[in-house]
Design goal:
The structure is a single chain. With about 240 residues, the protein is mainly alpha-helical. The protein has 11 helices and no strands. α3 packs across α4 and α4 runs parallel beside α6. The longest helix has 22 residues. The radius of gyration is 27 Å and the shape is globular.
Length: about 240
């Protein structure tokens, strides 16, 4: 019973996740086609931070910290895929696992200072043994401005354009939106039907308007139900001859 409980409740450690990552995405054991994904880097970073600080909380979706983590993970993913020949090289690439672990371990890639952190990634990629990274870290700690410390090694600070990334809607979320729009359109059609109209005619118009709303609702639509209500009302007006 103890062994079963341990297996079911115990979470993978950071080093266990790292080993699986290396096996599947770098050494390609049993799979020759997998490349490193942004989510792999985010998952490893999250596991590292939780092991380092039990009170660590992931940044909220679309917060500045969350966007910074995405930006850093995206650049790390690009360079590491090229480094380990997962993708064709488009630039000099030498960002290895030990370099990444060094930067995480020394707190160089926290999401609070994106420009400096991205510069550390670029410098680590250029550095054969991380000596330049150590010198920059020491210089900044001594009061040197980050832009001056990195400029000594030909690295400029830059801030990428940040865009709010919305998660994709699941099928159930899309259905919920569609059904909500139909229900609201259904009520608006009722309001347009004169009380003197026969019930059978009214229900027929509503049913036809109901179908038209479904046709007008793309699965990926996200502009709200107001436009859909107007389309439903317009279609119902045509069906009933209401102007």
């Amino acid at each position: 019973a103890y062994l079963v409980s341990d297996v079911l409740s115990r979470k993978e450690t950071f080093f266990e996740k790292l080993q699986k990552f290396i096996d599947s995405k770098i050494n390609h054991k049993g799979n020759v086609s997998q490349i490193i994904e942004v989510g792999d880097i985010l998952d490893l970073y999250d596991s590292h931070m939780r092991a380092k600080d039990k009170k660590y909380q992931q940044p909220k979706l679309n917060s500045p910290e969350w966007q910074s983590e995405i930006a850093m993970a995206t650049r790390i993913t690009d360079l590491m895929n090229q480094t380990y020949d997962n993708t064709p090289r488009t630039e000099p690439a030498n960002l290895t696992i030990p370099k990444l672990i060094y930067m995480w371990g020394h707190g160089l890639l926290s999401p609070n200072n994106l420009e400096t952190n991205l510069a550390y990634i670029e410098l680590a990629n250029k550095s054969p043994n991380m000596e330049e990274v150590k010198q920059v870290f020491s210089a900044i700690a001594s009061g040197t401005k980050p832009e001056d410390a990195f400029a000594k090694f030909g690295v400029e600070l830059y801030k990428p354009k940040m865009e709010v990334v919305q998660p994709e809607q699941s099928e159930s979320q899309q259905k919920l939106f569609t059904d909500k729009a139909i229900a609201e359109g259904h009520d608006n059609i009722r309001k347009l039907i004169p009380s003197s109209q026969p019930t059978t005619y009214s229900e027929k118009a509503i049913a036809e308007g109901h179908d038209n709303v479904r046709k007008l609702t793309p699965p990926s639509e996200s502009k709200g139900a107001k436009v859909i209500e107007m389309n439903a009302a317009a279609n119902a007006s045509v069906n009933m001859g209401v102007s």
